[in-house]
């Protein structure tokens, strides 16, 4: 597996996987570091048998990897360059789709990824349909996997509404603050990663007293927060099939979403409520669910949470998804090039 350069060793082996440091892609944190990186990549860009432009260091590391199949995540400039390189080198290429933003890529050269041979793997039926409509590209649907906790969903009283995401314009944490102002008696926990420092600081400065923040939580500790929440709140305007929806469902936590309803998880499978952007409707629901947070059998929140749990077990249990992914890769390897 190729990994961006975070300053780690050239080669790392962990859990049977070999990680090779891709020093052509350096994770730059500061503004000056990012400017230096952009200048560096611009200086070393060169054409390799057509567009999009390729970076010499990138195709050197791809050659060194000498893999049978190359898998990229998301419609990005990097994915497009890798797809072009695979076409030239006659290597198999698989594109794993993420957010629905992949259907309208914004990075330089990203849209080229759909012009080159390769297999697209969509997260949802909607993505697969739109890939065909917009780009004439066939795809397979592979739902996102989630680890189902060994313990059954928590039946103890729940404590707070939970929001999880980055401080950016996609996750829209400002909409959570708007909801918090309408639910002043409801305790709200926001686990917000510092993606955009300006947004991060502004959200913390404007938050009402009923909002508590945690900057970061290790992935293996997230279940404990979902299990204590009487609702997971999504304020994103666009997603693919967000992992947070699956993690909430795996813990029997109902989902309150302003705009996102992947595969009809909420509207058709009863895993929560979609408010179509209306904060007043979301506030009414949040206050109602909070009033029955004791989680007794038959209560509104518990019923929705149990629906969410059944949905993710039926459609997203990782043991089944991993088997399907292995079958997809094997079929691609067996296909005549």
Give me the oligomer status: single chain
Low-confidence segments: 47-52
Order of helices and strands: EEEHEEHEHEEHEEHEHEHEHEEHHH
Q: What is the averaged pLDDT score?
A: 87
Annotate the secondary structure layout:
Layout: E1 2-5, E2 11-14, E3 17-26, H1 31-43, E4 45-46, E5 54-55, H2 56-65, E6 69-73, H3 77-89, E7 92-96, E8 119-122, H4 125-135, E9 139-141, E10 160-166, H5 173-182, E11 188-193, H6 197-206, E12 211-214, H7 222-228, E13 229-234, H8 243-250, E14 255-257, E15 272-274, H9 279-291, H10 300-316, H11 318-334
Parallel strand pairs: 1-3, 6-7, 7-8, 8-9, 10-11, 10-13, 11-12, 13-14, 14-15
Antiparallel strand pairs: 2-3, 4-5
Helix pairs in contact: 5-9, 8-10
Give a short summary of the structure.
The chain has helices spanning 31-43, 56-65, 77-89, 125-135, 173-182, 197-206, 222-228, 243-250, 279-291, 300-316, 318-334; strands spanning 2-5, 11-14, 17-26, 45-46, 54-55, 69-73, 92-96, 119-122, 139-141, 160-166, 188-193, 211-214, 229-234, 255-257, 272-274. By secondary structure, the chain is of the alpha/beta class.
Give an account of the 3D structure.
The protein has 337 residues and is of the alpha/beta class. The protein has two domains: 44-144 and 325-334, Rossmann fold (3-Layer(aba) Sandwich), CATH 3.40.50; 160-316, Rossmann fold, CATH 3.40.50. Helix content is 38%, strand content 20%. The chain contains eleven helices and 15 strands. It has a six-stranded parallel sheet with strand order 12-11-10-13-14-15, sandwiched between helices. β11, α6 (197-206) and β12 (211-214) form a beta-alpha-beta unit. α5 (173-182) packs across α9 (279-291). The chain is globular and about 60 Å long. Residues 47-52 have low confidence and may be disordered.
